[in-house]
Amino acid sequence: MYFENKNIYMIGIGGIGMSGLAMFLNEKSISVTGSNNVKNKQLKKLDEKNIKYFIEHQKTIPSNTDIVIYTEAIDKDTNTEYLDAKQKTIECLTYREALAKLTKDYTLISISGTHGKTTTTSLLISVFLENNIDVNAIVGTNIEILGNKNYKTGTSKYFILETCELNSGFKDLEVDILAITNIELEHLESFSNIEEYKKAFQLLVDKTKEVVVINSKDSNSKNIKHHNIQTFNNGELPVLNNLIGRFNQENADCALKISKLLELDLEKSLKALKHFNGIEKRMEHICKNIYADYAHHPSAIKATLDSIKEKYPNQSICVFFQPHQYSRTIALYDEFTNSFKNCNKLIITDIYECRDKKEDVQKFNIDKFIIDIKNKNVENGEGIENSKYLLNKYESKYDKILIMGAGDICKLYEELREKKLK
Q: Is the four-CA dihedral 178, 179, 185, 190 of positive or negative sign?
């Protein structure tokens, strides 16, 4: 393994992906320490593994550091730990560059795409485990089948990895089997148009050794070129007991297609899909009538609300939504304003700023955004704290409360979740 006998320091060790990688390396007997700017629940998991870390970034990194792995969320021009590592000529890797180094010794199955990659990755892990394959894996959220963790160390040759297209960060991977769930313009801070976005996926496809699995109904995926293209979503879809929506059936069908390519037991694979319990922040039941969902792209929002309305046609739905990034909201403005027709009440909590340009923040008008949304019952939540008050106010007035977004909107339900777990 590339990191064997190395001392690793991770800047941003509390991120979902970074913490998973830290615990994976730790279980492989590799020395890992790091820092994080805030205390969060992932750090509690590191505590359980006795992985040491600093809260707030330090002026210098430990003197015995061999490799630094850093989150791309840091500012490399001002982060003192990163600057210290560069001055000391220590090897510095992004999180995804580190994943490329880690997975090159395995048969790598990579799940990519705009929507559904976390669920598809989790479903595929479930399929492997049901087939008694001791797989290695890192996925973008904590899942029940892994003991509420987002990684697994195994003894088999297989590594299942969820991969994100942000900044074309998956370009260094050496993939054996690649699945693309769908391709729809996303990460507007990295890509200015759909052609650039598709090109990033094609670059990953070009490096894929064996087979590329694409969605037969996705028009942008059909433009992908590879010597061995296989498709899913061609006909009857798997039956799911615990996940709603056709989009989740398509995710399951993608996982099933990979299992068939690897000649896994079909009956066991179908059983794993049928009884999969879901994952954190994907229509996760928090308590009572309150659910949480990660959807933050307009098409994902619409698909989720359509599915809920289809399953519960006579129930009223109240949505608390936090737009993620000013840049995304501006670029996909018309799509966002048309995404909320299938809810009875909508509260826009605030906008989560992340990798945004100053000019985008300054020119966005949230009041105009609320007026333009195609829903007659929209309210400005005026921040997370005030939205907590509104959550208490509306909880008894609607059959389903859905909290949606990818930012810190989780503050609305974290306390409720903790009480439920206790």
A: negative
